[in-house]
Amino acid sequence: MARRSDILAAARGWLGTPYRHQACCKGVGCDCLGLVRGVYAEVTGRMPEAPPPYTPDWAEAHCAETLAEAGRRHLTEIAPGLAEPGDILLFRWRRGLPAKHAGILSQPGWMIHAHEGAAVAEVPLGIWARKIAYAFAFPEDNG
Fold first, then answer.
1. How many CB atoms within 10 Å of residue 14?
2. Helix/strand/coil percentages in the chain, nearest 5
3. Is residue 79 part of a domain?
4. Segments forming the whole domain that contains residue 89
5. Domain-embedded: residue 105
6. N or C: which end of the chain has fewer CB within 10 A?
7. Is this model's pTM higher than 0.85 or not?
8. Per-residue DSSP letters for 31-91?
9. CA torsion angle for 96, 100, 105, 109 (degrees, to 10)?
10. Quick check: is 57 in a domain?
11. What whole-number distance in Å separates Cα of residue 87 and Cα of residue 36?
12. Closest Cα to residue 33, out of 100, 78, 79?
């Protein structure tokens, strides 16, 4: 099982990585999905599936829960209210739209995430707290 301390150490290792759409390279560039994929690879020893090319408006264009479905393939879905530090959170920008942003809960009320125009940062959940749509824990086995 991935230890929460390992997940958080890996996530904090990405702090300061510049935002780059569709990238997943610590210290060079990533987007929110690239951050989660990179941390997953560090703590499990394997990279999850590569996403197909996507545009910034992919969720609005497809109206499918693509990110949540991928989470279910690689992680364990949990109730958002049960999320603990080290768990993955998915957010909706607006009610009625699919979840399209991801972050890693770092401590109660805080997350590590990447967003356009900023480097990976550890920030208060703030208004993001009411936008949480899904939560996932890392897999039980790393084999």
1. 25
2. 30, 25, 45
3. yes
4. 4-52+62-137
5. yes
6. C
7. yes
8. -HHHHHHHHHHHHHSSPPPPPPP--TTHHHHH-S-HHHHHHHHHSEEE-GGG--TT-EEEE
9. -40
10. no
11. 10
12. 100
- 85 domain-assigned: yes
Q: What are phi and psi of 132, to 5 degrees?
A: -65, 125
Distance (Å, rounded) from C-alpha 102 to C-alpha 77? Answer: 14
Neighbours of 56 (CB within 10 A): 12
Q: What are the pLDDT digits (tens) for 31-89? A: 999 999 999 999 999 988 888 777 666 666 667 888 999 999 999 999 999 999 999 99
The CATH number that applies at residue 9 is 3.90.1720.10
Coil/strand/helix, residue 19: strand
At 143, is the pLDDT very low, low, confident or very high (cuts 50, 70, 90)? very low
Contact status, residue 143 vs residue 60, Cβ threshold 8 Å: no
How many structural domains compose the chain? 1
